[in-house]
Amino acid sequence: MAAPIAVHLEFGGGAELLFGGVKDHQVTLPSQSEPWDMKQLLAWIRANMLQERPELFVQGDTVRPGILVLINDADWELMGELTYQLQDQDNVVFISTLHGG
Amino acid sequence: MPVLCSSCEQKRAVLKRPKTGHSLCKECFFWAFEEEVHQTIVSARLFSPGETVGIGASGGKDSTVLAHVLKVLNERYSYGLKLLLLSVDEGITGYRDDSLETVKRNQQQYDLPLKIVSYEELYGWTMDAIVKQVGLKNNCTFCGVFRRQALDRGAMMLKVDKICTGHNADDVAETVLMNVLRGDIARLRRCTAISTASEGEGVVPRCKPLKYAYEKEIVLYAYFKKLDYFSTECIYSPNAYRGHARAFLKDLEAVRPSAIVDVIHSGENLSVREGVRMPVQGNCSRCGYISSQALCKSCVLLEGLNRGLPKLGIGKHHRLHGKILAREPLTQEEERKLKAVDF
Ligand SMILES: [Zn+2]
Ligand SMILES: [Zn+2]
What we know:
Chain A is mainly beta and 101 residues long. In chain A, 11% of the residues lie in helices and 31% in strands.
């Protein structure tokens, strides 16, 4: 069993509007048999945090195109995207690019 | 396993550039981004020394990044430009109030003069008041038409030589697509131009220095530089058609990042067969603004608002222009058609 992990989530660029307007969230992911990865985190966010219009945030099992993801301040495209294995105290940022210029 | 920057090969890469596929560290990314905007400015000869340049500032990510980068480049390469921020207050409570606060902070952060022109002072109508009369269906038409003129009028008040706007590569690609979908040949031909010459009296030349900058990079530039910008959707914006075009482009980009520049490239290289009729540009006989009709769109919309006939400027009512100009009353039948508004 992997122990529960604490991660810091941040929503910006308008994505926070789907989370009650709150940008910063400190969450604890429960213990499970395998380590948490980004794909599971997105499913968890969808089930536990999204307050409205989930289709504006997730599409299939990934984020909606146009939402940027940073893991510990680096583009998730450099980190394996959905397969990245989350560590305790990781910082994950979601920025929408779909809101007004 | 952290990925190393492919440029300096020393620091940890923080992003993968959609344009080139390169992985860069923060400093190398800032440099590359700024240099590319500089290249765009130089190769299209967007500015000349001594010019006063108004940056259309909305408080959003694009214009905030544009203001920051222009300030940096103006100093780094001694463009010799006098930069200032130009904002439009549409009069939308709760939306524009907040974004204008952002612009006011930017003014201080970047130490640039700021001029705000409001719909209320220019037209006698705020967007809040317009929405009350026209409903939510057509309000973007009003807002868009009024904003274009508002920037021009603000620019003239300030004796600005050029206006630059924060339109990025994604915006331009989206506009190409929209004009294809609408069959708007005249706009399709114009929309990829990086700059427009002065089209007539009262129209200040415009340019788009971020035309080739990807939205992803603009957002990450703002994020890593910790620039202060405002992001929320306009509360009156129901433009579903444009939203679909945007989502479609984002889907394409997810599969092939070059899709954005490819669409721009297609737009740039379209040529219109000879003999296709184009609207002839003239001037509005009421306000003098550039127009292909006797009255410009903004004067027609305004006339409709002031007469309580909000549909006047929506759709084609050109044959009524003569009557409006002569300030003649409309027939009951004409009034009936123009009054009904679907909310
Ligand atoms: Zn580097
Ligand atoms: Zn006019």
